[in-house]
Design brief:
190 residues; mainly beta; 70% strand; globular
């Protein structure tokens, strides 16, 4: 919909800054970066991959002689399909694999966790320049977030570039993000 390319496409690259606030009282919030790549396939299918990396610290406590510096990185690889309810409202189903690696110094806590995930979501192009997105991710992970509710807003600033802000609320952490998404015009890429 609209005079420009639709915001509801499935061929884009995205980079973002991410602040993660763990629910573990020994750890402070962390700053990090993330990237996502989505490639459309024939008909209603697409492939998606994401990577995030965060680094933070903890507070001094009786068990740790120094700050609990930590790193958290995640990778997801999956695919999905979308069903246009209208030209401006899509139901999206996604499934794939998730891998998380957490390393903390000073509190002797670390884990490597992997599993499968599913993510149903809705994408709505409210205006020619505004997309709203909401979804729920459920994963078979034990230590990493196994349930995450997320909301995102994308704002078109150029014909093939959008800015975004969003938040997600999981059972182990919550995160806030801001970034940019580039998508090629449909006429330049068959």
């Amino acid at each position: 919909g609209g005079s420009g390319p639709s915001l509801l496409n499935y061929k884009y690259a995205e980079v973002f800054y991410r602040y993660t606030d763990p629910k573990d009282s020994l750890l402070q919030g962390s700053h990090g970066l993330g990237a996502a790549l989505v490639m459309d396939l024939p008909t209603i299918f697409f492939l998606k991959g994401t990577f995030t990396w965060n680094s933070g610290s903890g507070e001094k406590n009786a068990r740790a002689a120094a700050n609990a510096d930590y790193n958290l990185s995640t990778i997801t690889v999956g695919g999905g399909a979308y069903m246009p309810i209208t030209n401006k409202l899509h139901f999206v189903g996604e499934a794939g694999l998730v891998y998380a690696n957490f390393q903390a110094d000073g509190i002797n806590k670390s884990y490597t966790d992997g599993g499968i995930y599913i993510r149903p979501s809705l994408r709505y192009q409210a205006l020619d320049w505004l997309e709203l997105q909401a979804g729920v991710t459920v994963a078979s992970t034990d230590d990493y977030d196994s349930k995450i509710f997320d909301v995102l807003g994308y704002f078109r600033v150029f014909p093939m570039f959008d800015l975004n802000i969003g938040a997600d609320f999981g059972d182990v952490s919550r995160g806030f993000r801001a970034g940019g998404r580039g998508s090629p015009s449909n006429s330049a890429f068959p």
